[in-house]
Specification:
Helices cover 44% and strands 31% of the residues. The protein is an alpha+beta fold. The chain has two domains: 10-46; 51-126, ACT-like. Chain A, domain 2 (Alpha-Beta Plaits, 2-Layer Sandwich). Strand 2 (80-89) and strand 3 (92-102) form a beta hairpin.
């Protein structure tokens, strides 16, 4: 089995350790492998989407990044039928986008949020 090295922030490493304890993983590598498997599975499922679809996109971020959300929202106005914004606690916000459009555009907006390192959580649910 090949070995790779990764760098993690102290905060992320603490989360890996917490997951290891709470979910019963025997080591950090197991946690990371499970996370990668989950990510690969989500991507495969998303890649199978085609045609016109309805979807929900959930994004969690710090409120200081509201300008990034606004910019992406304007870039995908043709796709977004409803947008809800709510402060959830402290400086965290949740954005809920109801999307209606071609799978390629849904994929594009999702990738824009996922590849932005300032977003904490990005989840897509196709309906």
């Amino acid at each position: 089995m090949p070995i790779i090295s990764i760098s993690l922030s102290d905060e992320l490493l603490s989360e890996v350790d917490r997951l290891q304890r709470s979910m019963g993983f025997t080591g950090r590598s197991e946690v990371i492998r499970a996370g990668i498997r989950n990510f690969v599975s989500e991507e495969k499922q998303k890649d199978a989407l085609a045609g016109s679809l309805h979807a929900i996109l959930l994004v969690v971020h710090n409120d200081e990044f509201d300008d990034i959300i606004a910019g992406l929202k304007h870039s995908f106005e043709d796709l977004i039928i409803t947008h809800l914004h709510s402060k959830i606690h402290g400086d965290k916000c949740v954005e809920l986008f109801m999307l209606d459009g071609e799978a390629e555009r849904v994929d594009m907006i999702t990738r824009n949020f996922r590849t932005n390192k300032k977003m904490d959580t990005v989840k897509l649910v196709a309906l």
